[in-house]
Amino acid sequence: MKKRKPEVVVISDINLGTLECRADELLIYLSSIKPKILVLNGDIYGNSGNNPTKFPCSHIKVIKKLLSMYSGGTKIFYLKGDKDKLFRRSNSRTFGDFTIDKELVLDLDGKKTWILHGDVFNTNLNLAKWINPFRDKKSDLLNPKVFAEKQRAKGNSRMVVSQIHKLSSDYEDASELMDQMELKAVNKAIKKGVDTVICGHNHQPVKSIHENRKGQYKYLNSGDWVKHLTALEYSFKRWKLYSFKLDKLTAFYGDEDLKALNKSQITQNYWDQIGNTENPRTAS
Q1: What is the mean pLDDT of the chain?
Q2: pLDDT at 244 over 80
Q3: Fewest CB atoms within 10 A around its CB: which of 96, 145, 260, 266?
Q4: What is the rounded distance in angstroms from the CA atom of residue 154 to the CA atom of residue 241?
Q5: Could you tell me the sign of the dihedral formed by the alpha carbons of 236, 69, 31, 231, in that order?
Q6: What are the Cα distances from residue 61, in Å, to 10, 115, 124?
Q7: Once rounded to an integer, what is the mean pLDDT over residues 27-34?
Q8: pLDDT at position 8
């Protein structure tokens, strides 16, 4: 079946190497598109997913598919998220058409789009980092009361529980915390002089418009590939929020070459391609 060819695709919060990662669905989606630019907007690896040698077969297939897209002419930008320990401390680097950085500004049809993971806008970021080792695999921090009860039941630190209760009183529900992140991102985008800001991080797919006397500003969030299975696509001078769950054509897509490989073949092929990125093709 013919692949769709969006100009830009943004995906984030895949959490490779973790149990909640929906790698099979993501592989089908990636097999259905051929974008000019693919932005991996942070948290591509999960907290426990920073050792690719231990990845499940389906997760390695996703990485191999990304490398295949790169080899096929897609320009890839890997923007570092708070969980991407493999790249978090590395400097910005470019291998041909593969770039690792912390943010990106694209000029799309005369309008500037600023893309970054978004953890810098996270209210209570320092507290969240401190709590991170205690968190459940599902993002219960977004529901402080539930998280606090689970931690108390496990006998975890009273300080953690008390801090979570404080967080709960400050933000009665997750939506208020997410609104704070969105407003911070938009305000920063206005100061930066861009028309659109795109984030990930909080796993909430959003497309919204903010107005002031100077004009309109768009805030977009690509969601995640843990629960929502969403992405952002730019075609015909506009952004749209893609939902895998609502795509009725996904059953017709799949990478036949990958399906035919067993785990040992996929793993070997994967490491061979990783080695080849040290001598990447020349960008046209």
Answers
A1: 77
A2: yes
A3: 260
A4: 38
A5: negative
A6: 19, 26, 36
A7: 95
A8: 98
Assigned token pair, 117: 């993971």
246 or 125: which leads in pLDDT: 246
* Domains of the chain with CATH codes: 8-118+196-276 (3.60.21.50), 125-170 (no CATH)
Record the tokens describing residue 8, joined without a space: 């830009």
Q: Strand 98-101's sheet: what is its strand order?
A: 93-95, 98-101, 75-79, 37-41, 8-11, 230-235, 238-243
Residue 192 to residue 243: CA distance in whole angstroms: 30
Q: Rounded distance, CA 140 to CA 150, Å?
A: 9
Length of the chain: 284
Write the CB contacts of 235 (distance below 8 Å, at least 6 apart in sequence): 5, 6, 7
Query: Looking at residue 229, what is its pLDDT?
Result: 97
Q: List, in sequence order, every residue forming a beta bridge with 104; answer none if it has no partner.
A: 115
What SS3 state is found at 80? Answer: coil
Other CB atoms within a 10 A radius of the CB of residue 222 amount to 31
For the record, the structure tokens of 102 come out as: 């912390």
Residue 9 pLDDT more than 70?
Answer: yes
How far is residue 45 from each of residues 18, 63, 91, 111, measured CA to CA in Å? Answer: 8, 11, 18, 31
What Cα–Cα distance (Å) separates residue 279 from each residue in 79, 217, 275?
21, 40, 8
Query: How would you write 103-135 as a 3-class SS string?
Result: EEEEEECCEEEEEECCHHHCCCHHHHHHHHHHC
Give CA angle at 50 (46, 54), nearest 5°: 105
- Tell me the two tokens of residue 83: 């969980």
- Taking the C-alpha atoms of residue 243 and residue 232, their distance in angstroms, rounded to an integer, is 9
- The answer to whether the beta carbons of residues 208 and 182 sit under 8 Å apart is yes
pLDDT by residue (tens digit) across 125-140?
Answer: 444 444 444 444 445 5
